[in-house]
Each structure stands twice: as structure tokens, then as C-alpha cells.
Amino acid sequence: KLHSDLDKGVGTVKYTLSGDGAGTVFTIDETTGDIHAIRSLDREEKPFYTLRAQAVDVDTKKPLEPESEFIIKVQDINDNEPKFLDGPYVASVPEMSPVGAYVLQVKATDADDPTYGNSARVVYSILQGQPYFSIDPKTGVIRTALPNMDREVKEQYQVLIQAKDMGGQLGGLAGTTTVNITLTDVNDNPPRFPKSIFHLKVPESSHVGSAIGRIRAVDPDFGKNAEIEYNIVPGDGGNLFDITTDENTQEGVIKLKKPLDFETKKAYTFKVEASNLHLDHRFHSVGPFKDTATVKINVLDMDEPPVFSKPMYTMEVYEDTPVGTIIGAVTAQDLDAGSSSVRYFIDWKNDVDSYFTIDATEGTIATNELLDRESTAQYNFSIIASKVSNPLLTSKVDVIINVLDVNEFPPEISVPYETSVCENAKPGQVIQTVTAADKDLSPAGQRFSFRLSPEASNKPNFTVHDYRNNTAGIETRKNGYSRRQQELYFLPVVIEDSSYPVQSSTNTMTIRVCRCDSDGTILSCNVEAIFLPVGLSTGALIAILLCIVILLVIVVLYVALRRQKKKDTLMTSKEDIRDNVIHYDDEGGGEEDTQAFDIGALRNPKVIEDNKMRRDIKPDTLCFPRQRPPVEDNTDIRDFINQRLQENDVDPTAPPYDSLATYAYEGNGSVAESLSSIESLTTEADQDYDYLSDWGPRFKILADMFGEEESYNPDKVT
């Protein structure tokens, strides 16, 4: 209630209210100043409100007093129960833990005012979970209440926890939560076999390494505490069987280490021990954490293939042994109770297997072809044995046949030697050491002997010294050798082996005489080097050869220039009859046409036939003219030509080829007078000019001229 001293109770004062909750939570009577709460208050929502009040004149609306502030505090009552904000809880504790072992601490929160009364004082208690666990009423710590709680008996526990305010007094509010507690495993139980004897049946055909059975020991523990290791106790089955642990099922897997044979042994008995891998020392007093069981294995009889007496057969035979010779045998038998007969045959894989045959019943192996050790020294093939009662049951064995050597090849020098001897060699000097090789398979200790052939023993050039260790030395027998007298020596060496029968061969060694220095180092073995002066170096020899080449080039150039100059002189000579071509009334080839005129017309007809080609130029393809009628022999021309020919033959300055330089002289008193075909004794009617067309393009105009005259001859017109 608000009241102003200025309020006389006549209604002239008005009260107003402002601040937290004014108009919503609280309201004021404007006339009396009474303050009322218009809704429920919650301390946990808002513990206090700050308000402002003022008295105002009703008429003037002016404050009669300054504004005053006051606080309305909400008083707490126990209207909130304790709550477990983190619940429900999950906890664990090892099994077999002692009493009072810590498990978990829980906490409840009360929203009431802890400073006012006991509304917020909480007390904890267990409603469900006794007598296994207990809780501290003030701290909420949960502990074990019973000793030796066994996980294998009960693993999960659900505990109901209550928190009550007002100190647990009657009328207080309470809240609950659930705690799920799990007992964790410890290795407190040894493995145990569910039975003392395990019976297994195993076929004798089981493969080595295969699993033939499983046994299991039970361990109620969990995880790594339940891991079991199995071992075979040394005894009957220690060598034939092995046991391992299946990590997923913790079973003992028995495996076969060696083949089983029903005919040899039908049953096996041994013991298996199961033990934990991870032990807990706190429980050693319980007893040994292992158990033992007996395993009995019965071997089942199976129809098995034949068994060879050996895992592999090795035989020997001499080469060139006659075909059909027995060299050995293989044996296989059926070990089953029925004891069936066995048949043998070769496992054909390639053509090499055809060198041998086998008797299907007896198993004897014989040669089928002649053997050559030098071609193939060893044969490998397989023999298959099958049961007559069941041909599908087969077994295989490898056979190795070594071909023994027969001494049929003579020894020879192992490699061709390039042997040389110095010109200044001394007697007794070893110039080469030789070794021998034999294509035959040499037995241990075989020796080769070396000696000169009888025809070379009397020659005083070289000798052979046998070192008695399958090597020999070639030694000189005279003081010095001369390449000028003899460059090569051929030395026949006889080599014998020590096998039976003795084989020998004669090997000819070539020995070359070389020039050496004083230390015996070879300087030259070439044939050309014999005639070179001693002491010239390679550079000097190259310089000499280069000078010779330069001189030859100079000589060739000189001869070529002289020949060209001589040729030019001949071409430009005023005596050259070929210049007379310009006297013809037809058009010729010009001054450059120095080869167009055939000077054969000026020669003796007999000389024409003998000398048709020029020898001072490269001849072209010749077109021979038709045979012309012979003209009367002129002795003056023949004598002139012979005279000029003789002069050129004896002239030392003449070119190296024969050349008749000029033919300007026509002779005196010639019956034919002029050599020109125009003034020839023969008439035009008797002359045939068709051969001019065969002389080439340079005589084409002349051939056309004479051809036209012939074609338009009025005497021939009919």
C-alpha cells in the first residue's frame, strides 16, 4: 500500500506505478494506493521486482512528491523437486571387486533457494539395487556393497537412486534416476574341456597341412581373458599332428604334419593341453589355469595309388649302347589290402622321351635309339605307375639317365693362338703356352701329352716342352730369325689323351716372325714393314707418302696441260684441211664446226677402211655410210701420208696418240685430179648421196641439197 501525507482522503491525489511488472504482474489502486499481484509469482523465474511510485494531483496532473522506488522480493517456498540433470547413468566395475569399491557419483540439483530453509537441501538414497550397491546420502557416491560379485553369474545391474529435498524429511519433494552398472570381466576362470576324450576319424589320403578335426575348451571369461592356447603333449602324435587356435572361435584346429598310412598304423592317441594366454596373478590361488583332454584318431583305409620304392631313380648308360639294351628298372607296388597289379608307362612330353622304352609289366627301361653324350649328356623323364584294378589311381616318379662318355674324340688345341717370335729371339725362349680340350667327358685325372710330330723333330727352328700339367710351351731352338728369309713357320704339334683307347691329333701352329725392340716388345709384324728403313716413325712415313701423292698430282696436271696445249695447236693450224669446208657453196656449220667434215675422203680408200675412228676423242655412236665405188689408187697421196705418219711417230714432242694433223696436199699428177666430189670422175648419175643423211645433223643441209638434185634430175624424168 502506498500513501502520501498530502492525501487528505478527499480524492484529490492519484497514485501511479511504473517499473518491472507494472501493469502485467502488479497493479495499483489510483485512489487508495493499494498494490495487488494480478498473477502467480515464481521465485525461480524472477526473485524480485524493482518498482517506482508517485502521487499526482488529480486536477493539475503535477506530482505532489518526488518519485519513490521500492523493491518487491518474492519469498521462496518448496515448490521444486531435485533433478538429476546427467541421468540416466552408465557405470562399470570389475567383477570380484571388494566391498566399498567405487562405482560412480551422481548429483541432483534443486531450483529452490538454498539460503532459505531446507527447500534445497538434498539427501540421496537407493530405492532399487540393494544389497549389491550402496550410496552416500550426502555426496551421492555409489560403491559396491557385496564382495566377489561374479560376472559369469550376473553381469548387468540396474540401480534406482532417489534425491529428496527438505533434508529427507516428510513432505519433501523427491527426484529419481537410473544407474546401469556392468561388471567387467577378469580372468578368474580357467579353460575347461567339456569332455575328457575326443574321437576323430581321418582318411589316410588326407593331405599334409590339412585340418583333420577341431576340439574346444570352454572358458566363461570374456575377451582376451578367454583366449586359449592349445598344445599337443609330447607323446604318440607329436610328430604327425599339430594344433593351432582359431582366433574367431577359440577352437583347437588339429592339422596333419606327415602323411598317414592305414597299412602302417591304424590309430593314434595323444593329449592336448588348453591354457589361458593372459593370467591374473590375483587368482593364482584358484588353481592352474589349464586343462587336458585325450584325442584318439582312427585312420580310415582308402584306395591309394601305387607307391614307388624310391622317390627318384638315377641310371647310367654308355653312349653308342646298342638299341634295346636294358639300363635299369623302376618298382612300384600297391600297399592296399587288395594288392592290385601295377602297370608302367613313360609320361610322354617331348621327343626326347622317345630315346627309351619301358616294359609295362616289369618296369625295365631300355634304349630305343643310339645315344650320343656330346649331343645330350643327360635325359630326364617321368614314369607313371597305375593300378590294374583302378587305372585312375596313378603315381609318378622322375628318372634321370646319365650318358657315360666313350673316348672317341682326340684332344685338340683349345683355342687358335696368334703366335709370334721376335727376330732377335734367343734359344730356349718360350714364345707361347698352349692348352688342349677334349670333346669327350674327361674323367677325373685325365692327362694330355704334347710333342712334335716326327717330320718336325729334325728341324732346328722350334720345339715343344710338355709341362706335365695339361699345358705345353713352344720354345725357340736357334738364335735369331729373319723375316726376309722366312716370315711364317708352321709347327705340327701332336696331342694325346690318357683315356682308353688313346686318341691323338696333330695340330699345326702358325708362327709369324716379327720385329721387336731389345725388351722383346713387338714393333711390327706386317709384310710391308720389311723394306722400310729402321727407325722411321709413323709420322715420318705419313709425310713421305703425302709427298709422293703431291708429286703424282703435279705430274698428272703437267701432262694434262701439255696435252691440251698440243690439241689447241692442232685445231688452229692453218694447214688444217677442215677449214676448206668454207669453200663449198652451201651453208656449213661455221668456224666452230671443227669436227663436221669427214676427212676420210682425202685418204687412200684402203686407209679409210682401216682407220674409221679418231683416237684423240671419245668416240660417239658411228653411223657407217654406204660403200662407195672405189676410186683409182693414187700413189702420191699414199706416199705423202706415210711420210707424215713416220714423222709423227719419231717426233718426241708429239702427243701420245696417233694424229694426222693436215691434209692440204692433194698430190701431183693425180689421175683423179681434184679430190673434190664435185669434180670427181664419176658422174652425178652414178653417185649415191644417201649416206650423207647418216652423218648426223651437221650434214643435214648438204644431204638435203644433194638429195633434191637427185630427186629433180631431168634425165630421170619419164
UniProtKB/TrEMBL annotation:
Q: How does it sit in the membrane?
A: Single-pass type I membrane protein
Q: Which GO terms describe its molecular function?
A: beta-catenin binding; cadherin binding; calcium ion binding
Query: Is Signal one of the keywords?
Result: yes
The Cadherin domain sits at 4-84, 85-193, 194-308, 309-413, 413-531
- Record bears the keyword Calcium: yes
Q: What are the TM regions of this chain, as residue ranges?
A: 530-561
Where in or outside the cell it occurs: the entry states: Cell membrane
Biological-process GO terms, alphabetical: adherens junction organization; calcium-dependent cell-cell adhesion via plasma membrane cell adhesion molecules; cell migration; cell morphogenesis; cell-cell adhesion mediated by cadherin; cell-cell junction assembly; homophilic cell adhesion via plasma membrane adhesion molecules
Q: Which domain of life is it from?
A: Eukaryota
Record protein name field: Cadherin-12
Identify the species of origin: Asarcornis scutulata
Q: What is the lineage of its organism?
A: Eukaryota, Metazoa, Chordata, Craniata, Vertebrata
